Amino acid sequence: MTGHEAVARRLDALADFIATPVxxxxxxxxxxxxxxxxxxxxxxxxxxxxxxTDRTLKARLDGRRSPxxxxxxxxxxxxxxxxxxxxxxxxxxxLNREGRGTRVEFxxxxxxxxDRPRQRAVQYRTLNxxxxxxxxxxxxxxxxxxxxxxxxxxxxxxxxxxxxxYEYVTxxxxxx
Length: 176
Prior knowledge:
Number of helices: 7
Order of helices and strands: HHHHHEEHHE
Radius of gyration: 20 Å
Largest sheet: 3 strands, antiparallel
Strand content: 5-15%
Structural class: mainly alpha
Shape: elongated
Helix content: 40-55%
Strand order of the largest sheet: 2-1-3
């Protein structure tokens, strides 16, 4: 996978989304409660594309109505969008660590499936990333192109002349 995809997966894991699937009653109720617990959350849910009347919402919360598959997908998309927007400040503070940054591990592609004469010796690398603002902003906006650009121009090129070997990786690891 590309490096920016691995970073997006890791940031999703750090965002700590609700684990129960939206297709179950418990998962749907948890997401609806998250999206309606305050006026700010309701506004953000509406901006994220969740357009449901208060009457329908109450019926869903009471269990009298269940949404269609398409509407479940909308609830999930709105939940993920709102959750990402809510954790941006927290993630930036944790990842930037007042300018000290976060250590990132690059796990290169597995070369075992490549023919022996064409295998490259690609080493496991670590790098301290101090500027996460563009990366987290692109992730929060679900903009893969901006995330790729920010990841490659702000981080991967700092690996030196071997940066092209780490554009595709098995994993990118970091903690916040």
